[in-house]
Amino acid sequence: MEREAVRAFLERHLYFRHLPPQDRERLLRQAQLRTLEAGEVLALEGEPCTMVYVVLRGRLYALKTSPEGREQIVNSLLAGQVLYAVPALDGLPLPATTQAASRAVVLSIPKGAFLEALRTCPDMAMAVLRDFAGRLRRLTALVEDLALRSVAERLARLLYERALQPGSPRMTQREMAAHLGTVREVVARALAQFERQGWIRLGRGVIEILDVEALRQAAGLGM
């Protein structure tokens, strides 16, 4: 990816567009491009935070690993998303491992350079705070869903919402599980049940929606 394309990307980015041009250039000079192949690990859970990453192209997974070694996707990260801003701010170790789900390009920004940009640009700091506030609201909504709705209800809602957005990127069952706060095996069983009920048809890597209204009702959504 050419540096000029990266420069244009940052000029449009939710965080970095607020930086004065000279400060954005200084940040870019300190940053490095890194290309990842599918399956390549970017950083490991528990490591000290030394970099903040911006996804420029491709997709990455955030993974958590159980003491038994079982991995669970907790987030799917797409172009524009920023990784490890939280540990850069609180000084704690990285909360999750990140791994490329496809060929990806990230911009590696030294932690110190990222924090300096926040200190010198209040508008950028406010943009980060607004983004964090949005994440907190989404997390609160997820906790509410986990407490009040079954996996089948949450999955029906996810499928219904995606049916209303033609052209949405495909999601694997692992990604659906991460989105819903469960594991892939539970999602697979729920999908099989939906297929038996005639609401969907499962193909190789494809879910065809056959009965949108049934999914809406199963999700408990009002008119």
Round the Cα radius of gyration to an integer and report it: 20 Å
SSE series: HHEEEEEEHEEHHHHHEEH
What is the name of the CATH class of the largest domain?
A: Mainly Beta
CA distance, first residue to last residue: 46 Å
Poorly predicted runs: none
Architecture per CATH nomenclature, i.e. the level-2 architecture of the largest domain: Sandwich
Main sheet summary: 4 strands, antiparallel
Read across the widest sheet, the strand sequence of neighbours is 1-8-3-6
Protein structure class: alpha+beta
The number of helical runs is 9
Number of domains: 2
Fraction of helical residues: 40-55%
Chart the SSEs and their pairings.
Layout: H1 3-12, H2 21-30, E1 32-36, E2 41-43, E3 51-57, E4 60-65, E5 71-77, E6 82-83, H3 85-90, E7 97-100, E8 104-110, H4 111-120, H5 122-148, H6 151-163, H7 173-180, H8 184-196, E9 200-203, E10 206-209, H9 212-218
Antiparallel strand pairs: 1-8, 2-7, 3-6, 3-8, 4-5, 4-7, 9-10
Helix pairs in contact: 4-5, 6-9, 7-8
